[in-house]
Every structure is written in C-alpha cells, then in structure tokens.
C-alpha cells in the first residue's frame, strides 16, 4: 500500500451514471464517465482499504484489488448499496444517479406519433440519503454536482441528506466535472471546508481520500 490511512477499513464507492429504461431500446441517463469514482477507488486501495465499486454502466477497466458490482438503474444501485452499507466503514456516493425515471417501462419500442410528445417521470430513491439514514451507518460522503451557487447548494445537501462530508463540484466550468480528466472541488464537513485546486482526477481522489480518512477517524 502507498499509505495506511484506511488500513483495515471497508469502503463502498458508487460511480458512473444510472440508466433509466423507457422501452427495450431507450433510456434516460447523463454524461458521467465514472472516472472520478474509479479514481477514488484506486486511492482507497492505495490507502489500504478493502474497496467495492458499485458501478453504473461505464467504459472503464476495474482497478486492481477492487471488487466491482455492476448495476444499471438507480433502484439496482440502491439495492446493491443497501446490501453492503451496514458492513462498511465509509460510503462515498460519487455516482450521478438519475433523480427521476419513466413512470412506466414499455414492453415494446415506443412508436412515433404526432409532433409533440411528453414523458411522465417519477422520483427515484435517494441512495446516499438512505445509507445515511441507516443504523449502524458508515461515515457517509456525498458529492454535489452544481452549475451555480455551488457551495450553498452543497451545504444544503450535506444537512438535508444528513451526510458527514460533501464534495462540492462545479460542473459548469469548461474541462471540469462530467467526463473530463480534471476536476476542482471543495470538500465540506460540519465544522470546516477545504478547497482543492484544479488537478487530474487521480490527484484529487488521493486528496479527498486523505481528508475522509482524517475525519472518519474522529468521533461523530
Ligand atoms: O464520472 P465523471 O465523468 O468522472 O464525473 C464525475 C461527477 C461530476 C459525476 C462527480 O464528480 C459528481 O459530482 N458526482 C455527483 C453527481 C450528482 O448526481 O450530484 P447530485 O448533486 O445530483 O447528487 C448529490 C448526491 O446525492 C451525490 O452524492 C449523488 O451520488 C447522490 N444521489 C443523488 C440522487 C439519488 N437519487 N441518489 C443519490 O445517492
């Protein structure tokens, strides 16, 4: 191991997008590539953790020494996380989970109709909030992908979802956030915050893991 910050700890990390089926050939999704979550998994392994990635559909190779559980939809991801969250020490929600899914999945391909069409959607379960509401619960870390007022929205999510830490991610800036190789974030916890300068996702992942290790070790 490159360091022992998380020696003996079990870490579960969600990564990538979810896909919400509309019919046998179509789905709703987003631009998450999984790079940030996979970089966190590598950094957790380097720090000595037993690491599981609960991964949406991405085109990335599984990092060495990482257990990978593949899921498609938000509800699949919730089930995979709930199976594992009570027995892990740290849970990191880096996945870009679809907030809504089609109210119905059609059995057959939807055919073209008139000029306009609309789609009924229903809310998906909130995975990180469900994990944070568990008992016992792991040290729970969320991400907040925002395009404006990033720190305020992130602080609001930290409180509302009852998280221990949140990584505020401005995804409006060119070359940062979704699908890019670089990122720039502010890590926020109850009593403080630390801005991490623009860098490659692997470098940032190591910094985030070190901050998590410091705070997860303290009594909550
Ligand atoms: O995958 P990459 O291309 O490398 O991009 C990385 C990233 C931009 C996806 C990542 O850094 C990031 O910001 N991930 C969170 C994306 C997101 O959906 O944020 P949100 O603000 O909508 O969600 C807030 C938190 O709740 C997140 O921890 C999210 O995982 C979680 N969530 C959201 C909805 C839901 N139904 N369940 C959840 O657990």
UniProtKB/TrEMBL annotation:
<dbReference type="GO" id="GO:0015941">
    <property type="term" value="P:pantothenate catabolic process"/>
</dbReference>
<comment type="similarity">
    <text>In the C-terminal section; belongs to the PPC synthetase family.</text>
</comment>
<keyword id="KW-0456">Lyase</keyword>
<dbReference type="GO" id="GO:0004632">
    <property type="term" value="F:phosphopantothenate--cysteine ligase activity"/>
</dbReference>
<keyword id="KW-0479">Metal-binding</keyword>
<keyword id="KW-0511">Multifunctional enzyme</keyword>
<comment type="function">
    <text>Catalyzes two sequential steps in the biosynthesis of coenzyme A. In the first step cysteine is conjugated to 4'-phosphopantothenate to form 4-phosphopantothenoylcysteine. In the second step the latter compound is decarboxylated to form 4'-phosphopantotheine.</text>
</comment>
<comment type="pathway">
    <text>Cofactor biosynthesis; coenzyme A biosynthesis; CoA from (R)-pantothenate: step 2/5.</text>
</comment>
<feature type="binding site">
    <location>
        <position position="161"/>
    </location>
    <ligand>
        <name>CTP</name>
    </ligand>
</feature>
<dbReference type="GO" id="GO:0046872">
    <property type="term" value="F:metal ion binding"/>
</dbReference>
<feature type="region of interest" description="Phosphopantothenate--cysteine ligase">
    <location>
        <begin position="11"/>
        <end position="220"/>
    </location>
</feature>
<feature type="binding site">
    <location>
        <position position="143"/>
    </location>
    <ligand>
        <name>CTP</name>
    </ligand>
</feature>
<dbReference type="GO" id="GO:0010181">
    <property type="term" value="F:FMN binding"/>
</dbReference>
<comment type="similarity">
    <text>In the N-terminal section; belongs to the HFCD (homo-oligomeric flavin containing Cys decarboxylase) superfamily.</text>
</comment>
<dbReference type="GO" id="GO:0004633">
    <property type="term" value="F:phosphopantothenoylcysteine decarboxylase activity"/>
</dbReference>
<keyword id="KW-0460">Magnesium</keyword>
<comment type="function">
    <text>Catalyzes two steps in the biosynthesis of coenzyme A. In the first step cysteine is conjugated to 4'-phosphopantothenate to form 4-phosphopantothenoylcysteine, in the latter compound is decarboxylated to form 4'-phosphopantotheine.</text>
</comment>
<dbReference type="GO" id="GO:0071513">
    <property type="term" value="C:phosphopantothenoylcysteine decarboxylase complex"/>
</dbReference>
<keyword id="KW-0285">Flavoprotein</keyword>
<dbReference type="GO" id="GO:0015937">
    <property type="term" value="P:coenzyme A biosynthetic process"/>
</dbReference>
<feature type="binding site">
    <location>
        <position position="99"/>
    </location>
    <ligand>
        <name>CTP</name>
    </ligand>
</feature>
<feature type="binding site">
    <location>
        <begin position="125"/>
        <end position="128"/>
    </location>
    <ligand>
        <name>CTP</name>
    </ligand>
</feature>
<feature type="binding site">
    <location>
        <position position="157"/>
    </location>
    <ligand>
        <name>CTP</name>
    </ligand>
</feature>
<comment type="pathway">
    <text>Cofactor biosynthesis; coenzyme A biosynthesis; CoA from (R)-pantothenate: step 3/5.</text>
</comment>
<protein>
    <recommendedName>
        <fullName>Coenzyme A biosynthesis bifunctional protein CoaBC</fullName>
        <ecNumber>4.1.1.36</ecNumber>
        <ecNumber>6.3.2.5</ecNumber>
    </recommendedName>
</protein>
<keyword id="KW-0288">FMN</keyword>
<keyword id="KW-0210">Decarboxylase</keyword>
<keyword id="KW-0436">Ligase</keyword>
<feature type="domain" description="DNA/pantothenate metabolism flavoprotein C-terminal">
    <location>
        <begin position="6"/>
        <end position="213"/>
    </location>
</feature>
<feature type="binding site">
    <location>
        <position position="109"/>
    </location>
    <ligand>
        <name>CTP</name>
    </ligand>
</feature>
